């Protein structure tokens, strides 16, 4: 009888974008506890370096790198710095993201382009850079995209975000097919609402747009369709990211996994 899988990432190198804060940071911490070397890649260079320091202080291996996921040269330089330090990339978590809420008729074209660039150009550029390393020595790897329940559901005011998060499903599925023969697996994690800075900012914004109280935004908009009126936590998302990174075969690839207190059920 074969053994059950172990949630160990010992000897693996992971790049996690947008990991100076929120969900990405929790994933970096979980991966480091599981034995991975983690690169904290973020536009906020000081935050990335501080996060890496804290992970090291807790006994992990980490480095902070400045990366703007919308800029090809920046993505390539940061990825090269990680490969130079640690040899290869085993895991990419393409997580950096922002939110902009507005009805379509008031959504500026520049905001639309900015959001799509961070979520979609960022996913593409970081994937392309990581694949070079994953393919070069035939050892493969795992790419995890941070989608959202909004990869499957729509909400008012979020045209660009819903469009981008749906788009990630397409990229992940193409990568599962192209990367499969080369040992690369890909997934999309689709969280419900998690109380990170990205969501805290939306609560007053949505209250104003929808002309309701902040409490009503939480109860009647954000958590309305959950089974238990609970927020998903950064640890919930990090646990799933750990499971997907540690999974030992391509039996599991090309999937979107929803972690949302039942808000969306596949
Ligand atoms: P957050 O605001 O706490 O963290 C986002 C991080 O991304 C920040 O550190 C920021 O500096 C970084 N970033 C922004 N633009 C960047 C760029 N151009 N290049 C590199 N880094 C950049 O947000 P979060 O809630 O942790 O969100 C992380 C991801 O999770 C996003 O993709 C978001 O869409 C997704 N998500 C969040 C929730 C939620 O409820 N919080 C739910 C579903 C999906």
Can you tell me the residue ranges where pLDDT is under 50 for at least 5 consecutive residues?
A: none
Distance between the termini: 32 Å
Share in helix: 40-55%
For the sheet with most strands, the description reads: 7 strands, parallel
Regarding CATH, which class of the largest domain? Alpha Beta
Our estimate of the beta-strand percent is 15-25%
The SS-based structural class is alpha/beta
What small molecules does this complex bind?
nicotinamide-adenine-dinucleotide
Q: So what's the overall shape?
A: globular
Overall mean pLDDT score? 97
What does this structure look like?
Helix 1 crosses helix 8, helix 3 (72-86) packs parallel to helix 4 and helix 6 (197-210) crosses helix 7. The protein is α/β, with parallel strands linked by helices. It has eight helices and seven strands, in the order E-H-E-H-E-H-E-H-E-H-E-H-H-H-E. The radius of gyration is 18 Å and the shape is globular. The protein starts with 12 loop residues before the first strand and ends in a 7-residue tail after the last strand. It has a seven-stranded parallel sheet, with helices on both faces. It has two domains: 9-192 and 233-259, NAD(P)-binding Rossmann-like Domain (Rossmann fold); 195-231, no CATH class. The longest helix has 28 residues, at 109-136. 47% of the residues lie in helices and 15% in strands. Strand 5, helix 5 and strand 6 form a beta-alpha-beta unit. The chain has helices spanning 22-33, 45-57, 72-86, 109-136, 159-179, 197-210, 214-222, 234-246; strands at 13-17, 37-42, 61-66, 91-94, 141-146, 184-191, 255-259. The structure holds nicotinamide-adenine-dinucleotide (NAD). Nicotinamide-adenine-dinucleotide binds next to helix 1 and helix 6.
